[in-house]
Design brief:
Blueprint (H helix, E strand, L loop, with lengths): L1 E6 L5 H9 L3 E6 L4 E3 L4 E3 L2 H8 L4 E2 L7 H9 L4 E5 L7 H4 L6 E5 L11 H7 L4 E8 L9 E8 L6 H24 L32 H10 L7 E4 L2 E11 L9 E3 L6 E4 L4 E9 L5 E2 H7 L11
Parallel strand pairs: 1-2, 1-6, 2-5, 6-7
Antiparallel strand pairs: 3-4, 7-8, 8-9, 10-11, 11-14, 12-13, 13-14, 14-15
Helix pairs in contact: 1-6, 5-7
Length: about 300
Amino acid sequence: MRIVFMGTPDFAVPALELLVMNGYEVVGIYTQPDKVSGRGQTLSAPPIKLAAQTLNLPVYQPANLKVTEEIERLAGLKPDVIIVAAYGVILTKTILDLPALGSINLHPSLLPKYRGVVPVPAAILNGDEFTGVSIIQLDKGIDTGPILAQAQIPIASNDTAELLMEKLSYIGAYLLLDVITRLLTKAIVPRAQDNSVAVYTRMLEKTDGEIDWQKSALEISRQVRAYQPWPGSYTRWQGRQLKIVEAKPLTGAATTPGKVVSLPGPLALGIETANGILGVEKVQLEGKRAMSAGEFIRGQKQLIGTVLPT
């Protein structure tokens, strides 16, 4: 089997590595072009490119996969299957139809729930008890193709989007290996998605991270986990951004949403909400390093009693 693998972030790396470890012939890696990042504005390679280079696999980074010469180059690789894992590009029907065994996608949600770009933050934000991965046949829609396989895991109370995404990357890698085996033997029956219960997600923006203290402590704590590491969850104090890095919901009387209060014990810092108190474990003031709430309060006692904007 000749495989073309398309992916970009860390989520795609375990699947690629497992395919190579099991002797599959990966004839080409497609990923996003390198991007400028950091204060130094240096070029940064996508994680899947770095993994591919370690595995001595050819890497292609077209700026536009719709142009004729790029389609011809892809066709020249003669893939039996194209595997997509968070590539970040919508493939045309011409490309989807190239491989004899079709094009399949590894998606980090239990489709048809959470189609689109940010399924993992959405699952945490909505308070779901479970999430998972789906492998589907790609069609011209966005995550609408028939399901080939799914695997489910519980969402732990301390799961951030980053941690949960890492868990799903490994589960998805092994599920993909099983699907590939069954594709070869034609022992897999695609199952159509129920479009009537589909849920779509949208691209997150930096402004989504600003905390609304009129929400409950439970809702805000979910936001803190869902938006870690990006866009982060933050409020403002003394004209600077104050990021809430880790927090948990606490019961207790709260009369003024946004009011900062001291707490006994290791938490040290709480913020009143519309329902309950948000127990803050770690914070980061703009321009400073992240630190425990207790350490922060020792140096910034004037924060106690402040009412943060909402």
